[in-house]
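Problem 12. The chain below contains 107 residues. Write out its predicted structure in token notation.
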Amino acid sequence: MDIQQHERLLRLLTDEFENKMATVTFTQWDTDSEDEEEETQFAGKLVGYKLTDNEFEEKDLLLLFADEEAESVEILMEIPGEEVDLATFENGRLAIFGTEAEVVLEK
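Solution.
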């Protein structure tokens, strides 16, 4: 299922992932060289999120997790300000597409 509305993305985060354990994979591309990417993976519980407008007419999505050791992990990524292909959700796997990053949450 393609997610194209910000409100629907936030509702999905609440309904499917908030306060539940998931495997999180965060991939960020180097802005200078698109060939280089940095990937981080961990298991964690989504404990909060916030979507705000930024100065570039995009939106900042802040995801807050508690990992297996109860350590706090923050992911901040820019997503499109327009309601376009923001994410996909299928079989318990949510992929959120940012302008220079992608985060995947899997149940």
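Discussion. The domain at 2-106 is CATH 2.70.180 (Protein Yojf; Chain: A;). Students who got a different answer should revisit the alignment rule from Section 12.3.
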